[in-house]
Design goal:
Blueprint (H helix, E strand, L loop, with lengths): L1 H26 L6 H11 L6 H28 L7 H26 L7 H27 L1
């Protein structure tokens, strides 16, 4: 049961976070879509994949990272490092938001890829998208783990 809940939490949290990013992207007419940016980075890194394979890989990487973040949340919670409540979901979202921003900054630097995006806007929405992720993970765990 626990493994199923972890996978479900990862799927739901990553999906809602992505929906948030797509909504902000459309609202502000910016490119804030993580799977699309991953696709572009694969082009820049010269991955030997077809365009369709790069798209699938971008989505797969995005959801795999979501799974790793949920798994980390679960391990930290089970080790008693925090309570399972909305505040810990908010704090966890903030922490992984900072980690996510750092990860994207490093990927853009390593790829020497400067997409035509508003970086401040992208990183700001990414921070809030991770808060959505953290709170969603908490809700799924709250409903199904207690």
């Amino acid at each position: 049961m626990t493994v199923a809940v972890i996978f479900l939490a990862a799927f739901v949290a990553t999906t809602l976070m992505t929906a948030f990013s797509y909504l902000i992207s459309e609202t502000f007419r910016g490119l804030y879509k993580e799977p699309v940016l991953l696709h572009y980075l694969m082009i820049r890194f010269n991955f030997n994949l077809s365009p369709k394979e790069k798209t699938v890989a971008g989505w797969t990487i995005h959801y795999t990272i979501g799974l790793l973040f949920v798994l980390a949340w679960y391990i930290l919670w089970k080790r008693g490092l925090f309570e399972l409540n909305w505040l810990s979901g908010l704090i966890y979202g903030c922490v992984i938001g900072i980690i996510g921003i750092g990860g994207w900054a490093v990927m853009f630097i390593l790829s020497d890829h400067k997409p035509k995006i508003d970086f401040k806007g992208y990183y700001l929405q990414l921070f809030f998208a991770h808060i959505v992720f953290g709170l969603t993970t908490w809700i799924v765990f709250e409903w199904l783990m207690k």
